[in-house]
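Hey, quick one: can you model this chain's 3D structure?
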Amino acid sequence: MRQYSPLTIVSYVIGPILIIFSHFGSLLVLMTGLSWGAIAWIVFLYLIRMLGTTAIYHRLLTHKSYQAPSSILWIGSIITASAGQMGPSWWKAHHMTHHQHADKQLDPHSPNTWVKKIQGFYWSQGGWLLSPEFFPAKLPKDVENDIVLKVIDRLHFLPVIALAALSYFIGGVEYLGAFFLSTTLLFHGVQTVNSFAHIVGDRPFITDEFSRNNVFVAILTLGEGWHNLHHAFQSSSRHGITISSGRVAYLPDPTFAFIKILESLNLASKLRMPSEANLLARSRQKKIQNLELSPVLETSVD
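Sure thing. Here's the predicted structure for all 302 residues.
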């Protein structure tokens, strides 16, 4: 395991502490109630910070599925850190380890490496953050070499505290409770990609793990729930793709729509997507169809 400095260890440990605190802070809404303004604040914070997680941390920073100016990456990382998603180095390190060892013993948050499914669900839904698996074995060099991203990574907790303070300034304890509730909902929404999207759903593409396309997770995560496509084509900027009746079909993907908006504003370029030929080549339907046809072909040859 990587040797961390004492300050980095303290910085990283603050992350799960804040998330746990956020769960308890959510109980404030039971005392204050929620006005329509506070509900709007919950929804706004959920959507913008979920987009930061999906469009910036995941598709841009980690998989480089499109290109964007450094300013977009930096601002997006601050927004995502304010969701309690930790810093960019920590996040990318864990996600790349997940892809390297998906649903195998070294996968940091697979629900399928546990004997009991309930225990596996708990583990993938957030239990892994309270274990030694929390510390990545290696931090990504490209992120560590960017001094701005490195500072955001080590001070990832400051945007969380700043947004909590802003919420209180806007609407007092009611809006502070709304901030905590939005943060807690977002945390569990993101974790459903680790849990549900590796347990329940369809598998239109051939992969060597248990990733699935799950519509419920896709709704919660603005398109990240089309997880089987993502594992089949990790660098695709669009995840909302499947195979239906032997043809490529496109699914709703709000994160991809957001990236297209950035592209229209000249803030994103070189969007990567697999060709339809490559999509069909990885299709599970095509494999099954070929298996069904092969005996007939052998008979006709005879």
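One thing worth noting: The mean pLDDT is 87.
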